[in-house]
Amino acid sequence: VILHTVSHDLRTPIATLQAALGALEEPGIALTPGDRAELIATMRVETARLARLVENVLDLSRLETGAAAPRRELWSADELLGRAAVEVSDPARVVVTVPADLPAVRVDASQVERALVNLLENGLKFSAADVELQAQAGTGSVVVDVLDRGRGVDADPGTLAGLGLGLVIAHGFAAANGCTLTLEPREGGGTRARLVVPAERVPEQVRA
Amino acid sequence: MTGHVLVVDDEPQFLRALATGLRGAGYDVATATTAEEALAAAGLRPPAAVVLDLRLPDASGTDVCRELRTWSAAPIVVVSASATRTRRSRRSTPARTTT
């Protein structure tokens, strides 16, 4: 599953880079300066996408080899969410709604942030509308929702089949930090990705 | 060389790069990102050739191919960034027989 996912996610930007480069190099193709600038901009976007994918592949490799042991520290949930929201490729399209009184969480911030960024990127990729990042206090937890108006969930519930690389990694980092991640169809269309992060003040045995 | 080409792919960056290249090569290019859009565009203005992604959000490229073949003999070039070797050989068979 993962090899196929990686293969698809890597091939798409490579195919785009090849198409753009081919158009720029081919002497028989007459391009306006605007066309050239657009093709170069496309190549820049796709190169950044490839760089993110390679980061993800390295993360996945760390997860699989156990080299991604989380270093848990105390964080305020809103700080964690704020960091993720500005870390995405298009922060202007992320609408954050977070109450001020959320409980603190003890997680590896960089890993949970990576999981959230991947969920947000996924929403941005499949949705033309803004993506919403919301949080609320749950029972002994902080419940984080990433809501999009994209094409919805392809995956079979409860499995990783059909998920993109970013979501597989989000699952991996969520699990490593004691969080649960579920993807469900959103009312009115799109996807609701829900990350339940155990709150700090709840003892281990009470967690769901 | 001129002609009307319909390019169908749900990856906007790929679609734009390919369309820009084809326009620069002298083709008149229409684009679509879904199967529904593709069939509507083809119906509105029959293309001389179609460049078609196999993986579309609302249907498979194979379905589009099959539908187009009911009324058009335009050559269809199937592209798929998601194809692995195994999938490519299996999936391209129906496409080839209809082009």
Structure, explained:
The complex is a heterodimer of chains A (208) and B (99). In chain A, helix 4 runs antiparallel to helix 5. By secondary structure, chain A is of the alpha+beta class. Chain A has 5 helices and 7 strands; from the N terminus they run ααβαββαββαββ. The C terminus of chain A is likely disordered. Chain A is elongated, with a radius of gyration of 19 Å. Chain A starts with a helix and ends in a 10-residue tail after the last strand. In chain A, a hairpin with a 5-residue loop joins strand 6 and strand 7. Chain A has a 5-stranded mixed beta sheet. Chain A has a two-stranded antiparallel ribbon with strand order 1-3. Chain B starts with a strand and ends with a helix. With 99 residues, chain B is α/β, with parallel strands linked by helices. In chain B, helix 3 links the parallel strand 3 and strand 4. Chain B is built from 4 helices and 4 strands. The C terminus of chain B is likely disordered. At the A-B interface, helix 1 and helix 2 of A face helix 1 of B.
